[in-house]
Each structure stands twice: as C-alpha cells, then as structure tokens.
Amino acid sequence: MAVYVCVCVAVACCTTVSDPASARSLGSASIGLSVTGIIITVVVAVILVAIYFTLLNNVVSCAYYTYNRICYRNRDYVGRYRSCAIGVKSSDGYCYWKVLA
Asked: At residue 72, what are phi and psi to the nearest 5 degrees?
C-alpha cells in the first residue's frame, strides 16, 4: 500500500506591488476598520458594565429602611423641628442611622 502526499507551495517573496496607490488605499481602509472595531468594542464594554451595575443595584435589596437609595438599619421619627444627631434626617421628619455595608 503506497501513500502519496502532494504538497503545494506558493512563494511570493520577491514580487513587488503592482499598484502602490491601491495598496495604500487598502492599508488605510484596514487601519480605519481596526480603529473602528476597537472603538465599538470599548463602547459595548462600557454599556455592558453600566447594565451590570444597574442590575446589581436593583437585585440587592434592603431588609431594613432605605433613604436616598442607602440602606439603614434603624429609623425613628424625630419630627420636623428636632435634630438628628446620630444619623441622617429626612424631609418628612425621620432619622436614619447605622448604615449597612
């Protein structure tokens, strides 16, 4: 049983560009497409990261009290005129403190 292998090799080491203007144009188009691809990749990555963190903030819920999108463990009504020395006072008279991480 005989096995024959045919290897075809093309050598193009010593040929010159027949149309330099066309080669320059193709080179410029190649660079333009590469830069455009990089820009699109960066934009898509930024959008995906923004979507990820938006979804992450919506998934993480607070089991206690939220004020200004921050989770607090305690809330007490202090009224409109009393101050809130240990936390943050809301406009409706509640005092929030002990922020959860």
From this structure: -120, 145
DSSP assignment letter at 68? T
Place of tokens 């809330």: 75
Instruction: Give the whole-angstrom CA distance, residue 47 versus residue 38.
Output: 14
- With 0.85 as the threshold, say if the pTM is over it: no
Residue 90 · residue 76 · CB < 8 Å: no
Q: What percent of the chain has pLDDT over 70?
A: 74
* CA dist., res. 88 & res. 90, Å (int): 7
SS3 34: helix
Q: What is the pLDDT of residues 40-60, one digit of tens each?
A: 999 999 998 888 877 766 556
Backbone dihedral region for residue 30 (phi beyond 0: left; psi -120 to 50: alpha; all else: beta): alpha
